[in-house]
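Deadline looming. Please check this record:
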Amino acid sequence: MTETVGADTASSSSTRGHGETAESGRKLGLRVERIYTTEGVHPYDEVTWARRDVVMTNWRDGTVNFEQRGVEFPESWSLNAVNIVTSKYFRGAAGSDTREQSLRQLLDRVVTSYTAAGLDNGYFASETDAEIFSHELTWMLLHQVFSFNSPVWFNVGTPSPQQVSACFILAVDDTMDSILNWYKEEGLIFKGGSGAGLNLSRIRSSKELLSSGGTASGPVSFMRGADASAGTIKSGGATRRAAKMVVLDVDHPDIQEFVETKAREENKIRVLRDAGYDMDLGGSDITSVQYQNANNSVRVNDEFMRAVETGGDFGLRARGTGEVIETVDAKKLFRQISQAAWECADPGIQYDGTINDWHTCPESGRISASNPCSEYMHLDNSSCNLASLNLMKFLDDDGSFDAQTFSKAVEVIITAMDISICFADFPTEPIGETTRRFRQLGIGFANLGALLMATGHAYDSEGGRSLAAAITSLMTGTAYKRSAELAGVVGAYDGYAQNASAHQRVMRKHAAANDLLRTVGRSDAAVHEVATSAWQDGLKIGERNGWRNAQASVLAPTGTIGFMMDCDTTGIEPDFSLVKFKKLVGGGSMQIVNQTVPRALASLGYQPEQVEAIVEHIAEKGHVLDAPGLRPEHYEVFDCAMGERAIAPMGHVRMMAAAQPFLSGAISKTVNMPETATVEEVEGIYFDSWKMGIKALAIYRDNCKVGQPLSAGSTGSASSDKTATAAVVHAGPTRKRLPKKRTAQTVSFAVGGAEGYLTTGSYPDGGLGEIFVNMSKQGSTLSGVMDAFSLAISIALQYGVPLETYVGKFVNNRFEPSGMTDDPDVRIATSVVDYLFRRIALDHLPEEKRAQLGIYSAAERSAQVAATDYGTGAPAEIDVEGLRSSVGTAPTVNAKEVAVASPAPSSVGSTSELLEAVTGFATDAPLCFTCGTKMRPAGSCYVCEGCGSTSGCS
């Protein structure tokens, strides 16, 4: 917690709290109070540290992508967080003594830079306050309470330029010099691994004349050159694809051509693929596909949307004169936009009227574009640095949200974010000038979906939306209150005087929206009460001091930094699925049930025995339908983004609408729709979003893109990554027949008194190629069914279906006959099928694969028993959750996870792939270009659980 004090002692206590100047005229400094830390104890001394080995491999081919051994992290940090932070954020040449080896070095590098800049620029009342600020910032980062965006970890405290922003907006005018400069500036930003957006509407259309008398090329033509440039820089070694946003106003004469660009390219991909061209990702012919490196959005104004509503005409205007040069049917154009989005997920929509109605600086220019993920919206040639709070860190044991501590944490974080602008470098001088003049910040949060589930709120419910809105209002209200206090310490932003009236108007709009918020429970009511106080105090302070920052908050994707904080959910998103993929030390993996589920069940009043049974059901089925003892009215609490009970598209839109009035910027989010969705439904979402006051959104209809990377063994799964080029599987599977003479083995068996024979035939290399099961008399129904079953399995094996896939599906099937067997390796079977595939696994799968499936021979089980700690009956040390190091630490077992953990299928490398394996639902997401695993959605971007790479902003 911080307050402000003057250099002389005559300043009153009320003055100290409100960020004004002291009576002597001297500037006030911040007096910082402790939130988490203890005086005389450094935050590092309050945690237990452990050494870990980080070895990251490509999931597909087993090659090592990164290796660093003996790194130091708190024991509480997960293996995934350690891997990602070590590989992404540690600085120094790999393998050298200069490379960072400890999280302490990383945090010290960043926090020391922030603290020193704060002292140098007059933010703190004394060096003691600066030290407390340093300790609080360190404690929160150490305990994963929040994280800065990735550029901070990449650059701050290093010899590199001190770039702290992840979000950029460029500008382009209707001159060739400006257009070529756009290519250059965009390339510089892409080279640094960041993304940028811009609006092309100033460029004359292809229906207008040049001063020389010729016809202009139009913005769509120039998009081709920019797309090629982005693709080239992407392929030149960047760690992720170039991320960019291209916006065109709906009244631009070339709007119809712009709308159809990507849909036409999708048709091209289909034709070329069918003609035999190499359209695989990275294929020799893929470069003929254009416009694939950008997200496209149409900027619609209120005039257009009202014309859509009433069925009127709409004028397309010349760029130079503003005169109407063509009139179109608004409904027809709106249908064209929705049709294109239905076909290929582009374009998205940005609502110009809503965006500029909440603009704090209209006297300095309109908001015309956004960053690639659509959450940052402000002036052209500007940037925004981000930080996100982990909401689960503020959930008390009684299920209440700790609004007071949350508010204090926001004060410290927003102070640090503003300090960073004092020393930050920028990719271009115009961006630097605008950012230093307006000091745009983007505080946000992650783990909302986990918080709602843990507190027993359905994501798509009045209670869930009310709590989310109250938290968002508290965050932004506190951020602006602190911004007003900072204005009294180090001055308002330079552009404030010119925009004072507009800025104050927007602050009153936020406060009025907070007053209109209707709470439905005790938790959200308590948060709302604190938020109301923050807005009231902030308005009073701002009227006296102005504000330090032109904007304060956004809701970003939180991809890589979400893993750094060990968040279950990203940004504003619901939980992705109830079953999760978790890596183990040593290279194994487990599938576990999301640990938010037991907490949610407890908050709903279920007893431990009921919780255990429900969790076991989820572990097996991947959903809560028909879970034993779970009341149907509670099903909605466990609805997720994907799976059996996926949240309806409008559920996502309603959540966005609940949070939007309390954000300076917008929300990074793509609304997923089922493959069966209609164009009319897309129209409905785009229209309703305008009515509900959302600033921007995009939709993705499952499997709508023809060209997309597919994960191995999941041909029904397609990428929704808008930045991805095309890749399709155009060769069918090939059958590998067994030789005429082959090795075979016959086993007699008895299951629950029913007898039979299993014969297996093998390839020369030992691989299983066929099975025959003989039960009952020839000609009987059972015999016929088993013959057909054996034939189906045999043909599938010869076409390359992995044996372990069948074993994973058929073991534990329950039906009669079942019970005791005469096989010493499989003493009890839940069915004949369960026995057959356990026996086949024992005979034809290697031990490591069987271990992942939980199948052991009698000799192997005896060896495990021999490894037991005698006297206690406890198993020897087993690292089930994979959170402990193999270097100098003793692994422990999480009792909750032991009850719900099971080996992950060997073909699975991420939660997306696990969800496909467990539920059969296809998850539309691209493969990671770094490690090969299937990514998962994070806002309007995608993030890799394996290595932390993202498809857009970070």
